[in-house]
Write a structure and sequence with these properties.
The radius of gyration is 22 Å and the shape is globular. The longest helix has 50 residues, at 151-200. It has 21 helices and no strands. The protein has helices at 3-21, 30-35, 42-53, 56-69, 82-99, 104-111, 114-147, 151-200, 203-213, 231-249, 251-258, 263-272, 274-294, 306-314, 319-355, 361-382, 392-416, 422-442, 447-468, 474-477, 490-493. Helix content is 76%, strand content 0%. The protein is mostly helical and 494 residues long.
Length: 494
């Protein structure tokens, strides 16, 4: 690595925690730590949503997946995101926001019962810890490829820098640093794409080179028998289940909107995030094609190294440092957001509800910071598990499919069908997760198929059990269910 590149990276690595650390003075209570005092304007919410969603798994993992599977990977950004973001903003966020909750499981606990809240919070915590490990492993691969650092050392460095401001500054620090990270991410990614296409002579020559050996790489929809992205899975599993579940029920996504200063800011932030979301394939998918055209010898087994290889071999001094800083931005923007969300789930849905119910706000703030540190350690330990999966992106998505379909099902039914009961929600969630676990761990089904099948199973169980059990009293449902909310407080959620 050239000295200039190293200086750029170091300045970014040191400056970012320093910027985030500044916000510690605004953290006086658990609401400040977990929800930024509910003072985030719409544009910060939007940047934070993008910064949270576009992590290292997208920067590195999507490039690697495009290297292996082609343009079908872009569905995760287009058909698998944009419609769901609209649905989230207009049909889900208003209910979460008016309820005044900190977490999605807290909302579902009010709608159903404590068991649903606890189970769902636990599932999200376990997945977040695993996914943090995936992100740390991604950092290890990048730093090993680019700087020659041992993977374990790279993971420790990442954990230290992200942990410094996440533990002290809470959501305010996370959201504000996300703004910087998102800007750097797009600048660096677009520069890499432009230079890569220039070297190849443009888009058409790149397509010709790639298509010569991989004719299916530019097919938007792949056949049913495709091992990872069959069109049935893309349509039913991704578009109808996994993506809406991600954008409507994922604590890391929703928490930025819950920290907004008004309901309008919450919805506007999610809608505004759609603009940069449409551009993400330019900095994730296209580099995968460029790497395949320039260095097909990497092979599918090393596909996740395609982006690091491009940065190391294509970019001139100075720009290489900037693009690597963009990768760091992508990494830490996801890590800090997930760390904050995981600690929120633990404190609000487990610790405060089941263990210590009446402590001071300062006490819960302290527990939140301690838990963030513990999660960093656990994620570092679990990082090598990523090697068991065929790619970084697949690793995160596979385990998520075990409970994402059931989560979306009980949330959708809970808000838009007032006849759903606590027992319908509980048994629907348990039955859906049990079926998904069986399909994934025993039968080894594709994760996209698992998502929509477990969703349908959860809907069936929820409806059947609800019709066989006593309806919930209307006073319990007020403010949580469509028809009992929109007519009363329409001005508050507009």
């Amino acid at each position: 690595m050239h000295g200039i590149d190293l200086i750029i990276v170091i300045v970014f690595l040191v400056g970012l925690p320093a910027f985030g650390f500044y916000f510690r003075k605004y953290v006086k209570s658990e609401e400040d730590y977990f929800l930024a005092g509910r003072m985030l304007p719409w544009w910060v919410v939007g940047f934070s949503v993008i910064g949270t969603q576009i992590g290292a798994t997208d920067f590195v993992g999507e490039s690697g997946a495009a290297f292996r599977f082609g343009i079908a990977q872009a569905h995760f950004e287009w058909i698998g995101a944009l419609p769901a973001m609209v649905v989230s903003a207009l049909l889900f966020i208003p209910y979460y926001w008016r309820a005044g909750v900190y977490t999605v499981p807290e909302f579902l606990g009010r709608r159903y019962n404590l068991a649903v809240r606890t189970i769902l919070a636990t599932l999200w915590i376990l997945w977040f810890i695993f996914f943090l490990g995936v992100l740390f492993w991604t950092s290890g691969i990048m730093l090993n490829e680019y700087l020659g650092l041992p993977v374990w050392l790279a993971i420790i460095i990442t954990a230290i820098f992200v942990g410094l401001y996440t533990i002290t500054g809470g959501l305010a620090a996370v959201a504000m640093t996300d703004v910087i990270q998102a800007v750097v991410m797009f600048i660096g990614g677009i520069c890499l794409t432009i230079i890569g296409l220039y070297i190849l002579g443009g888009w058409s020559p790149m397509v010709e080179i790639v298509s010569a050996n991989h004719p299916q790489h530019f097919n938007l929809f792949l056949p049913v028998e495709h091992g990872t992205y069959p069109w049935t899975g893309i349509l039913f599993g991704l578009a109808f289940v996994m993506s809406p579940a991600w954008w409507c029920c994922n604590q890391a996504m929703i928490q930025r909107t819950l920290g907004a200063r008004t309901a309008w800011d919450a919805k506007a932030g999610m809608i505004a995030a759609m603009v940069p979301k449409m551009l993400i394939p330019l900095i994730t998918i296209v580099p995968g094609f460029i790497a395949l055209a320039l260095n097909p010898g990497l092979g599918a087994e090393n596909a996740d190294k395609s982006l690091p290889w491009l940065i190391k071999n294509l970019l001139p001094t100075g720009l290489a440092g900037l693009v690597y800083a963009a990768f760091v931005a992508a990494l830490v923007s996801a890590v800090d957001s997930i760390l904050n969300s995981t600690s929120t789930l633990l404190v609000r849905d487990i610790y405060q509800r089941l263990l210590v119910r009446s402590a001071s706000s300062e006490h819960y703030l302290k527990v939140g910071r301690i838990s963030t540190f513990v999660f960093i350690i656990l994620a570092m330990i679990l990082a090598p598990v990523t090697k068991l999966f065929p790619g970084i992106f697949i690793a995160g998505s596979s385990l998520l499919s075990v409970f994402q379909g059931p989560t979306f099902a009980i949330t959708l039914i809970g808000i838009y069908w007032k006849r759903a009961t606590r027992w319908g929600g509980l048994y629907g969630l348990l039955g859906g997760v049990a079926l998904a676990s069986f399909l994934f761990f025993i039968l080894h089904w594709k994760f996209l198929d698992i998502a929509w099948i477990s969703f349908l199973a959860t809907v069936f169980i929820n409806v059947a059990v609800s019709l066989l059990t006593e309806p919930e009293p209307l006073e319990k449902l007020e403010g949580l269910v469509y028809g009992l909310v929109m007519k009363k407080d329409v001005n508050k959620i507009s």
